[in-house]
Amino acid sequence: MDKETIYIKNLLVVLNKKSNEDKLRINLYTIMITAILSQKVFEKNSDIPKFISKLNINYKDYVYRSRTLIVARMIREIESSDKNKLLFFVSELKKLLFESNNDNSNVKKNSSQTKSANNNSADDILSQFGRD
């Protein structure tokens, strides 16, 4: 897992219903921009429309050809959203980043049967934060 993904996951964990609207908005700018521009989260531009449609947002096809154009549109969307919609964005981002990571880790666990069986949770934490 790369540093960008860890950073945005840490920001997402802190956000909840008790966060004020300005804090939600500012952190969502950071999280959404980083997620959309990251090729670890969305490998292809064609993966982004599926996520955007889960947010109940639809853009014309030409928008999805450029990640920077998608970012610009999402910034406008976040800027004009109320607190409930911002919380909805946070919940969808959590589903995307945490559930997709669990699916990917299950695939990696099945494919990496050659690793030693004596790994423990401390090894997992160290590998998650880039320490070998």
Order of helices and strands: HHHHHH
According to DSSP, the number of beta strands is 0
The global form is globular
The fraction of residues in strands falls at under 5%
Mean pLDDT: 81
* Structural class computed from helices and strand pairing: mainly alpha
The main sheet comes to:
none
Fold and architecture overview:
This protein is mainly α. About 65% of the residues lie in helices and about 0% in strands. It is built from six helices and no strands. It is globular.
Topology:
Elements: H1 3-14, H2 21-37, H3 48-54, H4 67-79, H5 83-111, H6 121-128
Helix pairs in contact: 1-2, 1-5, 2-4, 2-5
Notable characteristics:
132 residues; single chain; globular; mainly alpha
Summarize this entry quickly.
This protein has helices at residues 3-14, 21-37, 48-54, 67-79, 83-111, 121-128. The protein has 132 residues and is an all-alpha fold.
